[in-house]
Design goal:
44 residues; mainly alpha; 1 helix; 95% helix
């Protein structure tokens, strides 16, 4: 029974890993954009 649970969990993580990577990349881009926009607004 435990083996089945472990397999299910590992499969779930393997299938959702690309999504997690994509999400973190999106957040990083958003933060970078916010920083750049903040700097531009301060200059104006």
């Amino acid at each position: 029974m435990m083996c089945l649970v472990c397999t299910g969990v590992s499969l779930f993580f393997r299938s959702s890993f690309p999504f997690i990577c994509w999400l973190s990349n999106l957040l990083r881009l958003h933060l970078a954009n916010e920083l750049v926009l903040g700097r531009v607004e301060k200059r104006i």
